[in-house]
Amino acid sequence: MRTILLKTRLLLFIFFASFFFSACQKDDVLSDGEKVANELKSKYVGYNFNVVAYSNRNTSATSDTQLNINGIFITVGNTTYNLDKLISYRYDNTNSIASLILYFE
Description:
Layout: H1 2-23, H2 32-44, E1 49-54, E2 60-65, E3 68-70, E4 73-76, E5 79-82, E6 86-92, E7 99-104
Parallel strand pairs: 1-7
Antiparallel strand pairs: 1-2, 3-4, 4-5, 6-7
Signal peptide: 1-23
Keywords: Signal
């Protein structure tokens, strides 16, 4: 009888311990900005090209440089943009001038 009680307690302990540890695992859910940052880094970091950024405030920044991405922020010239606010981007190689054009909210 005592061994059955000990086995039952041990099984309950294992069940609750596994439930607790599985509930505490961190989800690897990325924000849109993090997804875009990873995509831009994988495709364009390390290459020199003209980067042009436009925002809805009718402002733009241009820089002839490599991408500078820190977390979900990208710096173009002296202006830093939040990649969570990125609407779209495109790569353009017209007239042999490689450009990355970024459109922000």
